[in-house]
Design brief:
- The protein contains twelve helices and twelve strands.
- The chain has about 525 residues and is α+β, with helices and mostly antiparallel strands.
- A hairpin with a 2-residue loop joins strand 2 and strand 3.
- Helix 10 packs across helix 12 and helix 11 runs antiparallel to helix 12.
- The longest helix has about 30 residues.
- The chain binds protoporphyrin IX containing FE.
- GO terms for molecular function: catalase activity; heme binding; metal ion binding.
- Belongs to the catalase family.
- InterPro entries: Catalase, Catalase_AS, Catalase_clade1/3, Catalase_core, Catalase_haem_BS, Catalase_immune_responsive, Catalase_sf.
């Protein structure tokens, strides 16, 4: 099959002639030895015992024993695809160069290759794709200036606004450390003590918490970044992906129907649509804001629990992404790909968003552990431009990141012996001025409930009904103190939300009792098997 054959020259094949009895598809060991028996151990007689010098067998099994690397601590379950990003050469109707000198955006029609990984967050690598969870939406742009990663989610806001809280947030949503099941009680124990999470809750427990698939969902960078122009001036920027396929979400009941038959439906949907040429597309849109504290707003622009209102900060299109090629190998590409919020190109910068700064440490740190210190030498992670560093060695160093003609003895800088030299700055540095006290304090203008209440009222009726049902179900079995705190938080967002949740929890408790009876009855009529 031509389509599934490896390109010539792969694996460093040196083109030596084949031995007699061998052709291009002959099985070999990893040492290049042709393998004539892949079925039988070498044994003393055909009933064994086996010998220890079974080199091929030991190679095969011991490699198999090491086939897994640690899965991502979050976002372990994912699917990915290759594609391209095509720039519009402007931002909305304006000249984009006014705001950013990033080259990938500057010319109409400029194409940049991308790799995208979508994911769920809380559970393991083969968990159902119908679970209530944010969805990851991570894009690696292989630009002419090196890689840019935009590591986003489908929802535009997040649970917390300080990176210090991230491990606690995640622990509360992961399976219980004793009996290894996720529980509504632990999730809402954390949330009921984290009022800034209410905006996220208003989405996550509605159908927006279960996108129908990966193609029909939005994406967002969530955190605030900066754009820097050729004078070194900066604007705050937020990124959003708008799917040309539309947005589709599932109620809990719809998700359960799918999950009963298929827990891989989103991975399957993405792969099969790309395979049949139905390429999904997303438009990249940005919101821009001048780089200051904006005292006129009732929230801080660096608070990732808030949406920047679209009527004041319009979504301005900058380009279109098309996913048009499936991975050849899930592990090599989707599992080993490594995205990070620190991976920016010239013309893009960090803001002071405390979540973004915490994230930026976390990603490459975990990847040095999860994939290995040389993860950037893997083809899926390597930039598609020249790489010339003095970083050397470490586990699985695959090649030397040297420049052509570089003196290979000179793995340091500065040097007069034909080593690497620093680049000229692409433009003036963005140099914001700081004057403040070092402290541990949350942002002013917390305003935890207003946008959450707006979202509650903006939901369609069926979305609001589902939100109440899902929260009631998750809270019905929780300790009363957690129910009480959640009722208070919801009431603060909108009194109707509090009232309906109170009724919902009472109803869900009754249903729980009925369910328990039904399980007992079902156990009575279940078919017992005879031991043999
Ligand atoms: C994955 C940390 C917040 C989106 C990860 C991983 C870590 C992490 C350690 C695993 C990376 C890997 O193994 O390659 C954090 C921390 C956060 C944070 C410390 C807060 C302080 C967020 C937010 C978003 C987000 C707000 C959404 C904008 C993602 C995505 C992935 C991911 C999409 C999966 C990337 C992939 O597909 O490989 N995060 N995260 N994270 N995170 Fe975060």
């Amino acid at each position: 099959d031509e389509k599934h054959s490896a390109p010539n020259g792969r694996n460093g094949h040196n083109g030596h002639d084949k031995a007699a009895g061998e052709d291009a598809r002959t099985l070999t060991t990893r040492q290049g030895h042709p393998l004539s028996d892949n079925q039988n151990l070498r044994t003393l007689g055909n009933r064994g015992p086996a010998t220890l010098e079974n080199y091929q067998f030991i190679e095969k099994i011991s490699h198999f024993d090491r086939e897994r690397i640690p899965e991502r601590v979050v976002h372990a379950r994912g699917a990915g695809a290759h594609g391209t990003f095509e720039a519009y050469g402007k931002v909305g109707d304006e000249d984009i160069a006014k705001y950013t000198r990033a080259k990938l955006f500057n010319t109409k029609g400029k194409e940049t290759p991308v790799f995208v990984r979508f994911s769920t967050v809380g559970h393991g690598g083969h968990s159902p794709e119908t679970l209530r969870d944010p969805r990851g939406f991570a894009v690696k742009f292989y630009t002419e200036d090196g890689n840019w990663d935009l590591v986003g989610n489908n929802l535009k806001v997040f649970f917390i606004r300080d990176a210090m809280k991230f491990p606690d947030l995640i622990h509360s949503q992961k399976p219980d450390p004793v009996f290894n099941r996720q529980t509504g009680e632990r999730i809402f124990d954390f949330i009921s003590n984290t009022p800034e999470a209410m905006h996220m809750v208003s989405f996550l427990f509605s159908p927006w918490g279960i996108p129908a698939n990966y193609r029909q969902m939005q994406g967002s960078g969530v955190n605030t970044y900066k754009w820097v122009n050729d004078k070194g001036e900066a604007m705050l920027v937020k990124y959003h992906w708008e799917p040309m396929q539309g947005v589709k979400n599932l109620t809990q009941a719809e998700a359960e129907k799918i999950q009963a038959k298929n827990f891989n439906h989103a991975t399957q949907d993405l792969y099969e649509n790309i395979k049949k040429g139905n390429f999904p597309k997303w438009e990249l849109r940005v919101q821009l804001m001048s780089d200051d504290e904006h005292p006129e707003l009732n929230f801080d622009p660096l608070d990732d629990t808030k949406i920047w209102p679209e009527d004041q900060f319009p979504h301005l299109p900058v380009g279109m992404m098309t996913l048009n090629r499936n991975p050849e190998n899930y592990f090599a590409e989707v599992e080993q790909v490594a995205f990070g919020t620190g991976v920016l190109v010239d013309g893009l910068d960090f803001s002071d968003d405390k979540m973004l700064q915490g994230r930026t440490f976390s990603y490459s740190d975990t990847q040095r552990y999860r994939v290995g210190p040389n993860y950037l030498q893997l083809p899926i992670n390597a930039p598609k431009v020249r790489v010339a560093t003095n970083q050397r060695d470490g586990q699985m160093a695959y090649h030397v990141d040297a420049a052509p003609g570089q003196n290979l003895h000179t793995n340091y800088e500065p040097s007069s012996l034909n080593g690497l030299t620093e680049a000229k700055p692409a433009g003036p540095d963005h140099m914001p001025e700081y004057n403040g006290r070092l402290m541990r304090q949350t942002l002013d203008r917390e305003n935890n409930f207003e946008q959450a209440g707006e979202r509650y009222r903006q939901h369609e009726d069926w979305e609001r009904d589902d939100l109440i049902n899902n929260m009631s179900g998750a809270l019905a079995g929780a300790a009363e103190v957690i129910q009480t705190k959640m009722l208070e938080l919801c009431t603060n967002c909108d009194p109707d939300w509090g009232q309906r949740l109170r009724e919902g929890i009472a109803h869900a408790k009754e249903m729980m009792m009925k369910d328990e009876q039904a399980v007992e009855e079902a156990e009575e009529i279940s078919h017992e098997a005879k031991p043999y």
